[in-house]
Protein backbone atom coordinates (compact mmCIF):
# COMPACT_ATOMS: atom_id res chain seq x y z
CA UNK A 1 0.00 0.00 0.00
CA UNK A 2 1.33 3.42 -0.97
CA UNK A 3 1.54 5.92 1.82
CA UNK A 4 2.59 9.51 1.91
CA UNK A 5 5.92 10.24 3.54
CA UNK A 6 5.59 11.50 7.08
CA UNK A 7 6.98 14.89 7.93
CA UNK A 8 9.56 15.04 10.67
CA UNK A 9 8.08 15.97 14.06
CA UNK A 10 9.92 19.29 14.01
CA UNK A 11 8.01 20.56 10.94
CA UNK A 12 5.28 23.09 11.71
CA UNK A 13 1.76 22.19 10.54
CA UNK A 14 0.77 23.53 7.12
CA UNK A 15 -1.63 26.44 7.42
CA UNK A 16 -3.33 28.34 4.66
CA UNK A 17 -3.32 32.13 4.96
CA UNK A 18 -6.61 33.71 5.99
CA UNK A 19 -7.94 36.44 3.77
CA UNK A 20 -8.54 39.83 5.33
CA UNK A 21 -12.10 40.27 4.02
CA UNK A 22 -13.54 36.99 2.83
CA UNK A 23 -16.59 37.28 0.56
CA UNK A 24 -19.80 35.95 2.07
CA UNK A 25 -21.28 33.11 -0.01
CA UNK A 26 -24.05 35.34 -1.37
CA UNK A 27 -21.46 37.61 -3.01
CA UNK A 28 -19.55 34.87 -4.84
CA UNK A 29 -19.98 35.23 -8.58
CA UNK A 30 -20.89 31.98 -10.31
CA UNK A 31 -19.64 31.45 -13.83
CA UNK A 32 -21.69 29.59 -16.41
CA UNK A 33 -20.05 26.74 -18.27
CA UNK A 34 -19.80 27.18 -22.05
CA UNK A 35 -22.55 25.60 -24.14
CA UNK A 36 -21.99 21.90 -24.62
CA UNK A 37 -19.55 21.58 -21.72
CA UNK A 38 -20.33 18.64 -19.51
CA UNK A 39 -22.26 16.95 -22.28
CA UNK A 40 -21.32 13.36 -22.91
CA UNK A 41 -19.85 12.71 -26.34
CA UNK A 42 -22.61 10.25 -27.17
CA UNK A 43 -25.48 12.54 -26.10
CA UNK A 44 -27.05 13.41 -29.43
CA UNK A 45 -29.07 16.59 -29.69
CA UNK A 46 -31.96 17.20 -32.04
CA UNK A 47 -32.99 20.38 -33.82
CA UNK A 48 -35.34 21.83 -36.41
CA UNK A 49 -34.04 24.13 -39.16
CA UNK A 50 -36.49 26.26 -41.13
CA UNK A 51 -36.02 27.36 -44.69
CA UNK A 52 -38.15 28.94 -47.39
CA UNK A 53 -38.37 26.41 -50.24
CA UNK A 54 -37.93 29.24 -52.75
CA UNK A 55 -34.54 30.09 -51.21
CA UNK A 56 -33.23 26.62 -50.35
CA UNK A 57 -35.46 23.56 -50.63
CA UNK A 58 -35.08 19.95 -49.57
CA UNK A 59 -34.52 19.11 -53.24
CA UNK A 60 -31.60 21.60 -53.31
CA UNK A 61 -30.16 20.11 -50.11
CA UNK A 62 -30.49 16.49 -51.29
CA UNK A 63 -29.11 17.24 -54.77
CA UNK A 64 -26.08 19.00 -53.27
CA UNK A 65 -24.81 15.68 -51.91
CA UNK A 66 -22.17 17.21 -49.66
CA UNK A 67 -22.11 19.61 -46.77
CA UNK A 68 -23.99 22.88 -47.09
CA UNK A 69 -23.35 26.04 -45.11
CA UNK A 70 -26.40 26.93 -42.97
CA UNK A 71 -26.08 30.68 -42.56
CA UNK A 72 -28.11 33.87 -42.69
CA UNK A 73 -29.56 33.40 -39.20
CA UNK A 74 -29.87 36.83 -37.59
CA UNK A 75 -32.00 36.23 -34.49
CA UNK A 76 -29.79 35.96 -31.39
CA UNK A 77 -31.70 33.04 -29.86
CA UNK A 78 -31.60 31.12 -33.15
CA UNK A 79 -27.86 31.86 -33.45
CA UNK A 80 -27.32 30.56 -29.92
CA UNK A 81 -29.11 27.37 -30.94
CA UNK A 82 -26.76 27.02 -33.92
CA UNK A 83 -23.79 27.58 -31.60
CA UNK A 84 -25.03 24.81 -29.30
CA UNK A 85 -25.04 22.22 -32.10
CA UNK A 86 -22.47 19.43 -32.06
CA UNK A 87 -21.09 17.17 -34.77
CA UNK A 88 -23.54 14.45 -35.81
CA UNK A 89 -26.56 16.13 -34.21
CA UNK A 90 -29.69 15.52 -36.28
CA UNK A 91 -31.99 18.26 -37.54
CA UNK A 92 -35.43 18.20 -39.10
CA UNK A 93 -35.46 20.10 -42.40
CA UNK A 94 -38.62 22.23 -42.30
CA UNK A 95 -40.17 24.07 -45.24
CA UNK A 96 -41.72 27.32 -44.07
CA UNK A 97 -43.87 29.71 -46.08
CA UNK A 98 -47.55 29.86 -46.94
CA UNK A 99 -47.77 26.86 -49.25
CA UNK A 100 -45.70 24.20 -47.55
CA UNK A 101 -45.28 24.32 -43.78
CA UNK A 102 -43.97 20.85 -43.11
CA UNK A 103 -41.03 18.69 -42.07
CA UNK A 104 -39.65 17.12 -45.24
CA UNK A 105 -36.26 15.61 -44.34
CA UNK A 106 -33.39 15.13 -41.91
CA UNK A 107 -29.88 16.60 -42.04
CA UNK A 108 -26.86 16.03 -39.81
CA UNK A 109 -24.36 18.59 -38.52
CA UNK A 110 -20.99 18.08 -40.23
CA UNK A 111 -19.23 21.20 -38.91
CA UNK A 112 -19.96 23.06 -35.69
CA UNK A 113 -20.47 26.82 -35.46
CA UNK A 114 -17.80 28.95 -37.11
CA UNK A 115 -17.45 32.63 -37.93
CA UNK A 116 -17.87 33.39 -41.60
CA UNK A 117 -16.76 36.85 -42.75
CA UNK A 118 -18.30 36.14 -46.15
CA UNK A 119 -21.83 36.28 -44.69
CA UNK A 120 -21.07 38.67 -41.83
CA UNK A 121 -21.94 36.20 -39.11
CA UNK A 122 -21.61 32.53 -38.39
CA UNK A 123 -22.78 29.21 -39.73
CA UNK A 124 -22.84 25.46 -39.27
CA UNK A 125 -22.51 22.93 -42.07
CA UNK A 126 -25.15 20.26 -42.62
CA UNK A 127 -25.54 17.27 -44.95
CA UNK A 128 -28.73 15.53 -46.05
CA UNK A 129 -29.40 12.19 -44.33
CA UNK A 130 -32.77 11.28 -45.79
CA UNK A 131 -36.20 12.41 -46.84
CA UNK A 132 -39.17 11.86 -44.54
CA UNK A 133 -41.15 8.86 -45.76
CA UNK A 134 -44.20 11.06 -45.41
CA UNK A 135 -43.89 14.83 -44.87
CA UNK A 136 -45.36 15.95 -41.55
CA UNK A 137 -47.56 19.03 -42.00
CA UNK A 138 -47.60 21.87 -39.46
CA UNK A 139 -51.36 21.43 -38.94
CA UNK A 140 -50.76 17.77 -38.05
CA UNK A 141 -48.08 18.81 -35.54
CA UNK A 142 -50.47 21.33 -33.97
CA UNK A 143 -53.22 18.70 -33.60
CA UNK A 144 -50.98 16.23 -31.76
CA UNK A 145 -51.74 16.63 -28.06
CA UNK A 146 -48.43 15.09 -27.00
CA UNK A 147 -46.46 17.65 -29.01
CA UNK A 148 -48.57 20.54 -27.72
CA UNK A 149 -47.98 19.50 -24.12
CA UNK A 150 -44.50 18.04 -24.64
CA UNK A 151 -42.58 21.25 -25.08
CA UNK A 152 -42.14 21.31 -28.87
CA UNK A 153 -40.53 24.71 -29.41
CA UNK A 154 -41.83 25.12 -32.96
CA UNK A 155 -45.34 25.35 -31.52
CA UNK A 156 -44.25 27.70 -28.71
CA UNK A 157 -42.02 29.99 -30.79
CA UNK A 158 -43.26 29.60 -34.37
CA UNK A 159 -41.16 32.45 -35.80
CA UNK A 160 -37.81 31.13 -34.54
CA UNK A 161 -35.81 29.63 -37.43
CA UNK A 162 -33.65 27.20 -35.39
CA UNK A 163 -35.27 25.36 -32.47
CA UNK A 164 -34.17 22.52 -30.19
CA UNK A 165 -36.21 19.31 -30.30
CA UNK A 166 -36.51 17.04 -27.26
CA UNK A 167 -35.64 13.36 -27.89
CA UNK A 168 -39.20 12.22 -27.15
CA UNK A 169 -40.59 14.87 -29.53
CA UNK A 170 -38.09 13.73 -32.19
CA UNK A 171 -39.29 10.14 -31.84
CA UNK A 172 -42.95 11.15 -32.01
CA UNK A 173 -42.46 13.21 -35.18
CA UNK A 174 -40.45 10.41 -36.81
CA UNK A 175 -43.31 8.06 -35.95
CA UNK A 176 -45.85 10.47 -37.47
CA UNK A 177 -43.85 10.64 -40.71
CA UNK A 178 -43.04 6.94 -40.90
CA UNK A 179 -39.38 7.74 -40.23
CA UNK A 180 -36.89 8.94 -42.80
CA UNK A 181 -34.69 7.31 -45.40
CA UNK A 182 -31.50 6.10 -43.76
CA UNK A 183 -32.93 5.76 -40.24
CA UNK A 184 -32.37 2.00 -40.14
CA UNK A 185 -36.07 1.15 -39.89
CA UNK A 186 -37.49 -1.68 -41.94
CA UNK A 187 -40.16 -0.55 -44.39
CA UNK A 188 -42.95 -2.89 -45.51
CA UNK A 189 -44.25 -3.10 -49.09
CA UNK A 190 -47.07 -0.67 -48.32
CA UNK A 191 -44.48 1.93 -47.22
CA UNK A 192 -45.14 1.67 -43.49
CA UNK A 193 -42.11 1.72 -41.18
CA UNK A 194 -41.96 -1.30 -38.90
Concise structural overview:
The protein has 194 residues and is α+β, with helices and mostly antiparallel strands. The chain has helices at 58-64, 76-83, 138-143, 145-149, 153-156, 167-176; strands at 46-51, 68-70, 90-95, 102-116, 121-137, 162-165. It has a domain at 44-176: Roll (ph1033 like fold), CATH 3.10.590.
* Biggest sheet, spatial arrangement of strands: 2-5-4-3-1-6
> How many alpha or pi helices?
6
Dominant shape: globular
The SS-based structural class is alpha+beta
Mean pLDDT: 82
**Reported CATH architecture of the domain at 44-176:** Roll
Percent strand equals 25-35%
Helices and strands, in N-to-C order? EHEHEEEHHHEH
Q: What is the CATH homologous superfamily assignment of the domain at 44-176?
A: ph1033 like domains
| Largest pleated sheet | 6 strands, mixed
Query: In total, how many beta strands?
Result: 6
Looking at how many chains there are and whether they match, the oligomeric state comes to: single chain
Radius of gyration: 24 Å
Percentage of helical residues?
A: 10-25%
CATH class of the domain at 44-176: Alpha Beta
Biased composition (Pro residues): 1-15
Domain EVE: 45-176
Keywords: Nucleus
Organism: Punica granatum
Your description of this structure?
The protein has 194 residues and is α+β, with helices and mostly antiparallel strands. The chain has a domain at 44-176: ph1033 like domains (ph1033 like fold, Roll), CATH 3.10.590. Helices cover 21% and strands 26% of the residues. It contains 6 helices and 6 strands, in the order βαβαβββαααβα. The chain has a 6-stranded mixed sheet. Strand 3 (90-95) and strand 4 form a beta hairpin. The longest helix has 10 residues, at 167-176. The radius of gyration is 24 Å and the shape is globular. Residues 45-176 form the EVE domain. Residues 1-39 are annotated as: Disordered.
